[in-house]
């Protein structure tokens, strides 16, 4: 295996572990139960890509983080904030219903590998940015705009709902051989005692242009 592939796989596995922990604890419906989120910037090594393979150059991948996501089928048009890691190693979560957040430890959308965007299903009794994420279906479009104006278009391939206790970490965050996108929110029954939902909804999408 090439050194670049080893590095990508190792980074994906590390991200998978910390993100799985974040998903188990995140997605509370009540305001004030999650820590404030500082806006993170993309680390220089988040996306090492071959120009021509994904249509995104290495320079663009490093310097142009995603700033907007549009999902026409569910009327989502949202800015994107950066989500880094908290001191305990779990992923930060957006501090409110809007906007959605891009995990800066994952590839830039349009670069090789699974880019991760997360958002709340609701917040303080009001719908969140991904309140209708589970309504998406195969062939729906997801459009991500980068800071430099580059537009990456993805097509949904599948929509899944997983119990948090059975979250398929490798399937969602593992290394892939093409540019992909993972949209994640909470779903299922709300457990008032735990102040979180029982499940996670994951939308898988692949780059089309």
UniProtKB/TrEMBL annotation:
Residues 1-30 form the signal peptide. Keywords: Hydrolase, Signal. InterPro entries: Sortase, Sortase_dom-sf, Sortase_F. Transmembrane segments: none annotated. Gene3D superfamilies: Sortase (2.40.260.10). This is Class F sortase. The lineage of its organism: Bacteria, Bacillati, Actinomycetota, Actinomycetes, Mycobacteriales. The keyword Signal applies.
